[in-house]
């Protein structure tokens, strides 16, 4: 079945930190009506699930007016075209694809790369492996500095034992192999970060996918 509680969280970021474990995330804390929210963003590749990403500057959201009309906080979305729901394969902006696989960069695995080559090569590989983390941190700091800065996080809403509501699955959520997160496949339910900086008049998008996800899917989001 598709991911649960597909939603968009709109709020003002206040802090961020790296959370390590089986899959390293960058955890962004956001304030919005209803309290504090947590946004969990995949920032490192792991064995068998390499991260693909793209940072799109001067971005125009597919439904800019609808996004700007959203209240701050968590809003449930219908996984269907014609609204705010995102789909990496089907969403368009001014008649062009919102994002394509060819735009995306493969994030190398940090621990695998760090073992090889000279000290200088290792430093380069570490920098490449942390490129997405560095970009997210930079965007977070810019949004915090902008008094009206807002992050819109698309993904799956969750409640952490009733304590802190948050959102995760902020990446493509279709095309997974049947035996590897295949149960999450669905259309019009992809995750992303859209960052609005009113003081600069800019929008920036962060798109994340996994190399294991196929960009050739059927109408249910399964790989073909």
Residue share in helix: 10-25%
How is the main sheet built?
5 strands, mixed, barrel
Please state the average pLDDT score: 88
Outline type: globular
Structural class: alpha+beta
Report the radius of gyration as a whole number of Å: 17 Å
Q: What's the count of strands?
A: 12
Major sheet strand order: 1-2-3-10-9
Number of helices: 4
User: How much beta, percentage-wise?
Assistant: 25-35%
Low-confidence residue ranges: none
**Ends distance:** 17 Å
Order of helices and strands: EEEEHEEEEHHHEEEE
Structure described in brief:
This protein has 224 residues and is α+β, with helices and mostly antiparallel strands.
Task: Detail the topology: elements first, then pairings.
Layout: E1 6-19, E2 25-32, E3 35-42, E4 51-56, H1 64-68, E5 73-76, E6 92-93, E7 96-97, E8 105-106, H2 110-113, H3 119-129, H4 131-145, E9 150-160, E10 164-168, E11 192-197, E12 202-210
Parallel strand pairs: 3-10
Antiparallel strand pairs: 1-2, 1-5, 1-9, 2-3, 4-8, 4-12, 6-7, 9-10, 9-11, 11-12
Task: Describe, in plain words, how this protein is organized in 3D.
The structure is a single chain. The chain has about 220 residues and is α+β, with helices and mostly antiparallel strands. The chain is about 15% helix and about 35% strand. It contains four helices and twelve strands. The chain has helices at about 65-70, 110-115, 120-130, 130-145, and strands spanning about 5-20, 25-30, 35-40, 50-55, 75, 90-95, 95, 105, 150-160, 165-170, 190-195, 200-210. The strands form two sheets. The chain has a five-stranded mixed barrel with strand order 1-2-3-10-9.
